[in-house]
Design brief:
With 42 residues, the protein is an alpha+beta fold. It has two helices and two strands.
Length: 42
Amino acid sequence: MAYERVLQDEHPDCVIVVGDVNSTMTCTLAAVKIKYSLTHNS
């Protein structure tokens, strides 16, 4: 929930998630829920 609040406060143009861990999936779900563009880099 804290990360989702950061996204709502900052209004990024794109969210970049790195790696393949649980936190990556959590950040991805938060970004998609708010409908931000998403990029994954492993």
